[in-house]
Amino acid sequence: MPDLATTPEPPYYTVIFTSIRTPADPSGYEAMAERMLELARQQPGFLGVESARGADGLGITVSYWESEEAIRQWREHTEHLVAQSQGRSEWYARYELRVARVERAYGLK
Amino acid sequence: MPDLATTPEPPYYTVIFTSIRTPADPSGYEAMAERMLELARQQPGFLGVESARGADGLGITVSYWESEEAIRQWREHTEHLVAQSQGRSEWYARYELRVARVERAYGLK
Predict the structure, then answer these.
(1) Can you tell me the distance from the alpha carbon of A43 to that of A66, in angstroms, rounded to the nearest whole number?
(2) B96/A4 CB distance under 8 A
(3) What is the gyration radius of the CA atoms in chain B, in angstroms?
(4) Which pTM was predicted?
(5) Which B positions 23-62 lie with beta carbon below 8 A of chain A?
(6) What residue in B sits closest to A105 (Cα-Cα)?
């Protein structure tokens, strides 16, 4: 059973990463995606992450962060930079990355 | 082939809706989900939407809007209110809804 991220009261920040995969290297991609989730969880200021890829190939990963500075540091993490480069050259046909400030939140538990 | 949303230069607003489905009523849910996407596209201030549900049952729908007022109007749309109510009582085991202001964006085309 999957779980949703548990985040504090806003404000906090989010990175919305939406992507369409190429057909290339599914096992290499899966391994790197798991490694990046594991590594992200260890970063200062990390609050949570939610990720889904539909049967049509569209993927969405939303990560939550304490500050824009935490996002900047994660973007520049050495191992993450290698993954980003391989993503651009091989794994992604297209992606969009949006950084946003969460203003309010509510849910059904 | 799926497509990503094409959005203008920030700032604009986003609603990040993450959910876990109950096992109830898959065909009724699918029909309503499609109808809500169709209806959202017709709303004033709508900019785009991306949606994915993974094999583990976690779903993410991210919609983009010109303003917080456009989001408020969509939330209170009569037909959408009916869908929200049925979502809470029947279709969703859990959900989180976050409203955020997109500050910057970039991508790989």
Answers:
(1) 11
(2) yes
(3) 14
(4) 0.96
(5) 50-60, 62
(6) B98
